[in-house]
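Support request from a user on the community tier.

User writes: "When I paste my C-alpha cells into the form, the page sometimes reloads and wipes my input. The last time it worked, I copied everything first. Here is what I submitted, just in case something in the input itself triggers the reload:"
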C-alpha cells in the first residue's frame, strides 16, 4: 500500500447520530477508504461490549439486567475511560481513529431520561480526548422508522429517539467542537464521499496539533 509521508498524530473522528442513521456502515467504509489512501486508521466503537464493564452494559441494553440510571451513565463513561490510554497511544502513533459513538451519545441518551440535566451528564466524560471532527448523521425520525423496525434493545423506540435527537441538537450548539451535520437520508455512497472529504480535512488539520480534551 502507498504511504503518505505523515509524521504527526492521528485524528479522532467520531460518528454520532440516532439509531439507524447508518453510523456503523459508514465507519467501516471510512476506515477502509482512509487505509486505501495511505492514511493509517482504525475503527473503535462505544459501548465496547467486550470488556468487563462492556458486558455489564451489554446485559443492561439487552434487558437482561436492570441498573439504576445514574449507574448506567457512569458505566458508559467508565467504558470510554478504560479505553482512553489505548486511544491516546494510537493517536500518538499517527493512527486516526474512527469512532462509532462517543461521549455525545452518552449525554444525549441519558439526558433524554427524566431528571437528568445535560450539565450533569457531561461531567464524567470531561478530560477524555477531544474529537477533531464530530460527524452527525442527521436522519428524521420518520426516515429512521422507514428503515425497518427497531430491535428489542433498550432505547429502541421512536418516542425515546425523538428526545435523543433533541438532546443532540442542543449539544451541537457547542462551537468549541467541530460538528459537521450530514444528511443521512442520501445514498450510502454519497454519504461516504461527504464523510471521507470532511475526514481528510480533519486529518490534515489535526496532524500537528496537540490532542485536545473534552
Ligand atoms: P450501539 O451498539 O451503537 O447500537 O449502541 C447501543 C445503544 O446504547 C444505543 O441505543 C445507544 C446507547 N448508548 C450508546 N452510548 C451510550 C452512553 O454513553 N450512555 C447511554 N445511556 N446510552 C448509550
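"...and here is what came back when it finally went through:"
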Amino acid at each position: 500500500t502507498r504511504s503518505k509521508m505523515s509524521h504527526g498524530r492521528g485524528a479522532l473522528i467520531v460518528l454520532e447520530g440516532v439509531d439507524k442513521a447508518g453510523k456503523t456502515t459508514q465507519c467501516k467504509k471510512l476506515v477502509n477508504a482512509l487505509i486505501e489512501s495511505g492514511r493509517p486508521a482504525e475503527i473503535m466503537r462505544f459501548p465496547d461490549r467486550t470488556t468487563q464493564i462492556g458486558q455489564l452494559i451489554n446485559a443492561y441494553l439487552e434487558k437482561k439486567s436492570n441498573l439504576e440510571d445514574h449507574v448506567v451513565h457512569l458505566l458508559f463513561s467508565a467504558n470510554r475511560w478504560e479505553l482512553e490510554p489505548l486511544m491516546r497511544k494510537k493517536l500518538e502513533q499517527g493512527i486516526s481513529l474512527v469512532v462509532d459513538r462517543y461521549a455525545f451519545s452518552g449525554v444525549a441518551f441519558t439526558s433524554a431520561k427524566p431528571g437528568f440535566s445535560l450539565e450533569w451528564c457531561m461531567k464524567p466524560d470531561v478530560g477524555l480526548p477531544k474529537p477533531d471532527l464530530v460527524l452527525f448523521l442527521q436522519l428524521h425520525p420518520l426516515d429512521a422508522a422507514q428503515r425497518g423496525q427497531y430491535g428489542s434493545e433498550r432505547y429502541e423506540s421512536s418516542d425515546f429517539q425523538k428526545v435523543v435527537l433533541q438532546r443532540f441538537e442542543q449539544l451541537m450548539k457547542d462551537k468549541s467542537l467541530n460538528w459537521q451535520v450530514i444528511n443521512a437520508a442520501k445514498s450510502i455512497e454519497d454519504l461516504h464521499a461527504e464523510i471521507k472529504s470532511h475526514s481528510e480535512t480533519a486529518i490534515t488539520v489535526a496532524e500537528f496539533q496537540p490532542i485536545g480534551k473534552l
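Agent notes: The reload is a front-end session timeout and is unrelated to the input. Residues 109 and 164 are 6 Å apart (CA to CA). The first helix runs from residue 23 to 36. Escalated to web team.
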